[in-house]
Amino acid sequence: MDHPAAQHILGLYQRHADAFVRLRSRALFEKSWLDAFLAAVGKTGHILDIGCGTGEPIAAYFMAQGYTLTGVDGSEAMLAYACAQFPTQRWCLQDMRALALKETFDGLVAWDSFFHLSQGDQRAMFAVFARHSHPGSALLFTSGPGDGIAMGEFEGEPLFHASLAPEEYRALLAENGFTVLAMRAEDPECTGHTVWLAKRE
């Protein structure tokens, strides 16, 4: 059975969207990985941001570089910020686990979102990534450094994170047609994030 906190992650972000906006760093500590992702996407393209939140700073960075953006998030309150800030882009209210947009994208990113899912739901997401990609599509996501569950806290509520083992991520990527371009566990140049960059074959 999933951890109770995993089942309530969308509600947590719905309740605390204002706090997220206030606290989320806009320093773009992710920039080196975002640039590597865009290099894999190509000079132009349509990016799917899975768990886009408010659209800042990551989706905003992609838009500033000239890319078309579709953002998906399960929190209506978070998406309201994105819609207000970037009304010309497409924002979809949907749980990523049920995502079925019936189109493919040149790049898919799940930064600090996918790792809130249970381990079972994470395994199922690789088929979702595959359905929304085509040969040449890039995929960027963050995970934990090893198999397990890690509990944090946000605004006084438990904040769930989970990860598979790196070997299992590699196997799931390969099974779904992705080749790993780069992976770094607990990257010291990216505030300790564990980051994966892959490309669809």
What does the model show?
- This protein has 201 residues and is of the alpha/beta class.
- The chain has one domain (2-95, 102-198): Vaccinia Virus protein VP39 (Rossmann fold).
- 34% of the residues lie in helices and 32% in strands.
- The strands form 2 sheets. Strands 3-2-1-4-5-9-8 form a 7-stranded mixed β-sheet, with helices on both faces. The chain has a two-stranded antiparallel ribbon with strand order 6-7.
- Helix 7 (119-131) links the parallel strand 4 and strand 5.
- The protein is globular, with a radius of gyration of 16 Å.
- The termini are far apart.
- The model has no long low-confidence stretch (mean pLDDT 92).
- This is SAM-dependent methyltransferase.
- Residues 47-136 form the Methyltransferase domain.
- GO terms for molecular function: methyltransferase activity.
